[in-house]
Specification:
With 477 residues, the chain is an alpha/beta fold. Helices cover 28% and strands 25% of the residues. It has three domains: 143 residues, FAD/NAD(P)-binding domain (3-Layer(bba) Sandwich); 114 residues, FAD/NAD(P)-binding domain; 117 residues, Enolase-like, domain 1. Helix 1 runs parallel beside helix 7 and helix 3 runs parallel beside helix 5.
Length: 477
Amino acid sequence: MDRKVDVAILGAGTAGLSAMAQVRRGKKSFVLINGGELGTTCARVGCMPSKALIQVAHDLHRREIFDREGIEGGEALSANWPNTMEHVRDLRDILVDRVLANSTDQMGDEFIEGYARFIEPYVLQVGEQKISADRIVLACGTRPVVPPSWADFGERILTSDTVFELEDLPRSIAVVGLGVIGLELGQALSYLGVSVTGFDQQETLAGITDPAARQSAIELMSRSFPIYLGHAVELKEEAGQIRVTAGDQSVVVDAVLASMGRRSNLDWLAMENSGVDCDAHGQPIFDRHTMRCGESRVFIAGDISGTDQVLHEATDEGRIAGYNAARDSAVAFKRKTPLAITFTSPNICQIGVAFDDLPADQVEMGEMRLGPVGRALIMGANRGLLRVYAERSTGRLLGATLIAERAEHLAHLLAWCIDEQMTVLQMLRKPFYHPSMEEALQGALRDVFSKLNQKTDSADAPPELEALHEPDSSTSV
């Protein structure tokens, strides 16, 4: 059966649904094609079930400081693993049902279930159907990376797609890959009582490039479970368990969590028939401000694009791709300030220009360690640091790396300030309530401001308070 539409959208995840909304608004005919599970990666296997598990784990781990707070009986608390996993799945299912109810459940023949592949430019095969489209949006997501050689270990190899389906947790686990997913799930499992060992071939965690922040993160995360960096991992069968070896380190575990990133599902699409120009890795070459692939009428959005694999970026990319797919010419959109948050304890946040991309001779850096921060001390979380980066010539904030409890909130404030191109002095003129974690940010801003002021050879720093009127000889601050 042949079918002709204005726009074909491949993938019913966050990006695909956002693209569909824009195409509908543009009054274009369309089909939404999806192979595999519905419900978005975020709701099914990503942000939401992981945060449900993290919340339970952090609630339980709080008992570790009960003694110093005068609370007795904390040592008797433990997690019933089957009940915990059932709770996580219940929350996950509620969220998935909400997504489906608001998206694909009532779509009729505009929704096609199946895997699409190109048979020629702008022509797709989905099962027995041939779909011709004037424009196409590629938003069919990613899947976890698992080395083919690990297949022999069967269900003992877990990924973020399978770990939440466990009826019970393993007694011991190796987490291979300490990016966002590996760190979040590794710490949560450790807090719940699983014996966790972490490995990563890189010398950093969560992609941190700032050396001071990286060292702080390694020290603090190593308090949750042993971490070994800088060596490739080998797996071997050993008496029904798995021996995991990296360099001189070796451990025997019941299961391995593969968290080495996610790979694009583009290889399922027969892109060689699409007419789209791709790079050496088979990734379409596209403009991130229009999401258009070269000069074609194909657009790309979401995790499959290989850029920032986070929900708000997928939403924006879907909107951009869908908006442009519904029009004769592509419009370029300004992208948001980069914002990445790892929901460990402490949070690991990176905002704005990455440390490695800063022009070192044009930037000043400020720092505040959490030791003396009153609110952090009261919470029992006064370890970590905040690092902020400002442009020397203008004082404008460029970026930051935060290793701190509740830094997810500070990260948003900083992203908004960077987006508004605020200077450090402008930020210091805002109120900072006492006692709050925001005072740690105030300390980091004061540190970088003092350095900026020294570089300008000014006799004294401008006051943080702003005069209501022009001062005269009788006015003092």
